[in-house]
Structure formats: structure tokens, C-alpha cells
Amino acid sequence: MIIIFKVAVLISGKGSNLQSIIDRLHIKNNNIEIKCVISNNKDVLGLKRAKDSDICTYTVNDCNYKKSKEYEKEIINIIDGQSIDLIVLAGYMRLLSPYFIDYYYPKIINIHPSLLPSFPGLNAQQQALDYGVKVSGCTVHFVDKGVDSGPIIKQKAVVVDSNDTVNSLSKRILKDEHKILPEVIKLLSLNKVKLKNRTVIIEER
Amino acid sequence: MIIIFKVAVLISGKGSNLQSIIDRLHIKNNNIEIKCVISNNKDVLGLKRAKDSDICTYTVNDCNYKKSKEYEKEIINIIDGQSIDLIVLAGYMRLLSPYFIDYYYPKIINIHPSLLPSFPGLNAQQQALDYGVKVSGCTVHFVDKGVDSGPIIKQKAVVVDSNDTVNSLSKRILKDEHKILPEVIKLLSLNKVKLKNRTVIIEER
Known about the structure:
34% helix, seven-stranded mixed beta sheet, 6 helices, two-stranded antiparallel sheet, homodimer, alpha/beta, 2 domains, Rossmann fold
């Protein structure tokens, strides 16, 4: 019997991290399947990328719901209908409520373009440049109720150059995001990620 | 005419970073001279290391001064008597007052065992392990009035292993401290470090 590890990906925009998961993991002998892609914005490139790979897509437009809880219940309906093992936030720009986080913890992961705990929240790359760090990077972490504060699974450092702009730095960090997010999903699918309080142990061997 | 770049090093303990500066820079065709080593604790290994290299040493024991300003004036007397170009805090465990910082800014640098702005203050390596980061490192920065908050000159990332203890991580970070602190002093002596607001530009070429 083949057990498939089922992933839901939440996006808001162009979905380049989604594409890297599709390219590196989706089916391809990995026993990993992206069951659905959910976007809070309609007509974004990420949805097209999913459709091009025959992945189910859903647009749950947050403007259509008066209360955050109703909006999230709609997402929960989609996810629970497909026995999802992991929810991946890949450039999903809407905060999730404690209700949603509690419901799934620790089954939600996020990719963030800084070496957390430095520069949580929006515009992490600009924050890093404004601070003047010489090393930044990216982080994959479990999502808890705080802003980018959950247990860290994997990080990768990126050197900041003197002449970096927010675009050049973001591009270089994004290259590493495309590597470490699929790596973490693969490790999770193989049950090699153990959470001990807030420390994550990777059983790589 | 040879211009010598004159450095004062402030320490509190064993002075391994002091030793790396002595070994890599002191005299040796670098036109850099450690003119004095000042410790707030007597009989520490760092003072012996300085004496072994014929560097003047001073112990200014903070317990002997009722007011921080009197203590710091004593240090200023020593430093100003020797036309010092740069003050290096190398494991100096006493906070300096805004009075002292203002007096010398931006001529004081510090080495800190984390990738700032993550984990400022004491026990940075333990803080990093407690948080569960997968990448830490070290930072050389100009000292401003905050705690480890000044403009960053150089940083080096260090991978954190799943089985790291505070000792094993500290040792690995210390190896890189021993590299980047002398590198920064050398760059400063060559006037290749430019401060633009809080961003540091290194003119490496």
C-alpha cells in the first residue's frame, strides 16, 4: 500500500514557492501530493500554476466574509474534506486567527524571508536592509499564534552585499526559499521532524 | 613616515579574542599596534596574554569607584593619554554609559556571539539554543548607546546542529569571532569602513 502525504498550499500571489514545491515534490516518486491550492485573491499567477499541474484550486476571498472565523471555516471545510496532512503557507499574506492555528497546530508551516527571530512580519528584506545586517536569509517554521514566532525547522543564511537593493536581496533569498521549503516538506512526509518543546530535531539519517 | 593605527582593547576575562588580534595584527607589517589592554577584573588570563606580548596593561576595577562616571573617566585618561584610534571591546562584560559612548562614537567596536539583532545581551548562544534557531553566528558592530544595537560592520553565519550544547556552539562561533574581529580592525585601519546613517559600507577593493 502506498501512503500519500497530502499537502494543501495557501497563497496570495504569484506562487513561486508553490511552483518549486510542484517541480521538486509533486507526485514524482515522492509519495507527496499537493491536493489543493487555496488563494485569498482571485486571478493570481499561483492559481494558474496550480491549474497547469492539474491541482484543485479554490479562491476564498476574504472580502466576502464579514467575520474572520467564517472565512477560516470555509478554508477548514476545504482542507478537512481532503484529509490533508500538512498546510503550507507559501506567500500567504493574511494572518490566521488563533482559532485556525489551534485547530491544526503543528500541521501548518510557513516560509519567511529572514533569519527569524530577526525581522518578523511584512517586508522582512527591507527591514534587514534598513537595519544594515550583513547576513540575512530565510526560515521555514511551524506556525503558532504569534507573528512568525513558531518553532524553526530550517534556516539558510544569505550574505547581504553593500550594493544590495530590496529586489536583488529578495531574489537571492527567494532562491534559497525554493530549496528549503520543499526539503522541509519532504522531511515532514518522511516523519523525520520531531518537535521537542520549541526545538525542532531533524532526523536526517 | 609610517602611520601606526593605535588600538586599545577592553577585556574582562580570558581574552581569546585579544589573542587573535595579537596573533593576526599586532605590529607584523600591519601598521597596527595594540597600545594598551584594560581589564575591569584583575589577574585575568587576558592581562597575562597582553604582558606576554609586551603590551601595556591596566586594571581599572569597577568596584573601586562609587560612580560609573568616575570609573569611566579613569579609562578615558588612559586612552586619551595614548592617542588611541580605536577601542575594541573583546569580551568586556561591563556596560558603558552614554557619556563614554558619546565621547568616542564611532570609535568603539564590539564583538557579539549572535547574528544581531537576534539575541542581544548576555548568554547569546544559550538564547539561540533556547529559541531553537538553525543558524546563528557572530557580529562585529560599532557600539552605540543601546545594548548591542549599533551599526553592523561584519557578520558570519554558523550552522546550529541538533545536538549542539552551549559549549559546542560557543566554540564554533568563537572560531569565527577570531577571524572577523581582526578583519574589521584591519579594514578600519585602512580607512575602508564608511558609516552612512546606520548602514556600514565596506570598500573591500
